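Q: What would this chain look like folded?
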Amino acid sequence: MSQLYTPPELEPEPDFREYEPIQPEPGWKSLARKLWAPIAALGAFLAKFWYLAAALLKFKVFTVAATMIVSVGAYALLGGWWFGVGLVLLIFVHEMGHVLELRRQGVPASAPLFIPFLGAVVGMKQMPKNAWHEAQVALAGPILGTLGALGVWGLGIYFDSNFLKALAFIGFLLNLFNLLPIVPLDGGRAVAALHPAVWLVGLIGLVALLIYSPNPILLIVLLLGAGELWNRWQTRNHPELQDYYRVKRWQRAVVAAVYLGLAVFLVLAMEATHVPRNF
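A: My prediction, written as structure tokens:
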């Protein structure tokens, strides 16, 4: 292919306009830019994560789950992670007995919130109608909790697992402990349908138990129980409270039968599921 020849006198003159040479960027600026990019990305991610976490915490299910996880970690310090998970699930079943009975009675109730080493609490926006209904709510927890421990016992027998049997033993023990006739325990709320004087028996029994086996949890229950007992004794003559504790005879009989029968069953179940410490 031929090329076009340009005479020298027709060649364009070179452009000698001045220009600024490219200045090299200082090293610290380049380093700062490289470091800032990941920091900015991380900041944006954390901001989104924090917003998401705050939004999720508005839902009660995540609050309940968070308290469960904390409790699992606390109980795991005593017997390992599987023990922590099993114990929290047994407590959850127990507390759901209260929740289901409250909702059956039409009383608004929250899901259980867990407190490490103290079990869990269920919030309610109003008290049950009277001591008879309160006793039903109180006994629903140990009843369903006992059924949960029975299920663990059954699995222990099926798999021939001493660990599951020991866990069932702990479940029976927790439900039996909750039957102590002193507020704020379930037993204290149940015996209110029998006679408030039973609380004094429970208080004396708890003092004896604390002397025999000193324990900070027992001390906390004792202080709460003594305060509640004193408060209810001070207001015992209030007309509304007198109506609250007015219970029919057949209702007292039902509460007494369920309360005593459940206590005896739990003692026998503990005897059957007791596993030597060196299993």
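The radius of gyration is 34 Å.
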